[in-house]
């Protein structure tokens, strides 16, 4: 199957700093990638849809100025958590699908801890 | 709002026991249905999916799921579990006609199989 790589897998940052998470499709091109967030004992919640070459589409309640998404190429999308606060601590996962397919391939996730 | 419910948050079974994990969704239209599995330390992986046709779907590793439209359910089953099935299982739905491949996930079920 297709492989999606996410980096870093864990990051600890100080409150007020910014953190960038990368999501790469290793062996296929992805015009669309998705970013999810998972709180403990809760389901994966879609944050935004990342579209190559255009602005991301954010879900209701997600602050686009706080969670900056850049999809500059067909194999890379980045999520930057700006001015991070402890409440941003969570597990972030990206996914991508092959063109015309609904099967999603997921990255291994990034555990962000803001101290 | 559309949602997916997984009734069992934690399940503990002995090897060779039968497994059934419940999944119900709330959406009146056509849906694509999925079960994903996440083994410890690994990416989410697709177990099986249902789009149309035979409501009994067979997936990898001996898993199957049955779509019962009248009950809005898509329960996952395996006749005889193995220790290696220890993982977290997620049910997911894509409402048909949503425009993009936006998954709605359940909260997940942690399965532990005792050797």
Number of helices of chain A: 0
Characterize the main sheet of chain A.
Answer: 7 strands, mixed
Into which percent range does the helicity of residues of chain B fall?
Answer: under 10%
What distance lies between the first and last C-alpha atoms of chain A, to the nearest angstrom?
Answer: 37 Å
Number of helices of chain B: 0
Largest sheet of chain B: 6 strands, mixed
Backbone shape of chain B: globular
DSSP, total strands of chain A: 11
The percent of residues in helical segments of chain A reads under 10%
pLDDT < 50 stretches of chain A: none
Radius of gyration of chain A (Å): 13 Å
Mean pLDDT of chain B: 92
Instruction: Bin the strand percentage of chain B.
Output: over 45%
The poorly predicted ranges of chain B are: none
Q: How would you classify the helix and strand content of chain B by structural class?
A: mainly beta
Separation, N- and C-terminal Cα atoms of chain B: 41 Å
Characterise this structure:
The complex is a heterodimer of chains A (115) and B (115). Chain A is mainly beta and 115 residues long. In chain A, 0% of the residues lie in helices and 53% in strands. Chain A has no helices and 11 strands. In chain A, strand 7 and strand 8 form a beta hairpin. In chain B, 0% of the residues lie in helices and 52% in strands. Chain B is globular, with a radius of gyration of 14 Å. Chain B is built from no helices and 12 strands. The mean pLDDT of chain B is 92. Classes of the chains: A mainly beta (115), B mainly beta (115). The interface between A and B is medium-sized, with 24 and 23 residues.
């Amino acid at each position: 199957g297709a492989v999606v790589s996410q980096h870093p897998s864990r990051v600890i940052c100080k409150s007020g700093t910014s953190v960038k998470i990368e999501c790469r499709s290793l062996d296929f091109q992805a015009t669309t990638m998705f970013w999810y967030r998972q709180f403990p004992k809760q389901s994966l919640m879609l944050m935004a849809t990342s579209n190559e070459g255009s602005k991301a589409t954010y879900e209701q309640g997600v602050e686009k100025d706080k969670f900056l998404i850049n999809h500059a190429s067909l194999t890379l999308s980045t999520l930057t958590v700006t001015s991070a606060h402890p409440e941003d601590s969570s597990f972030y996962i990206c996914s991508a699908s092959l063109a015309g397919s609904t099967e999603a391939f997921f990255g291994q996730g990034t555990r962000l801890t803001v101290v | 709002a559309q949602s997916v419910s997984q009734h069992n948050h934690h399940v503990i079974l002995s090897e060779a026991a039968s497994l059934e994990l419940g999944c119900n969704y709330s959406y009146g239209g056509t849906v694509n249905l999925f079960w994903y599995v996440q083994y410890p330390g690994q990416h989410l992986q697709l177990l099986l999916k249902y789009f149309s046709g035979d409501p009994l779907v067979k997936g990898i590793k001996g898993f199957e799921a049955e779509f019962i439209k009248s009950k809005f359910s898509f329960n996952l089953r395996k006749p005889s579990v193995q220790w290696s099935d220890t993982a977290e299982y997620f049910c997911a739905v894509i409402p048909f006609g949503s425009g993009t491949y936006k998954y709605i996930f359940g909260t997940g079920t942690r399965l532990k199989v005792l050797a």
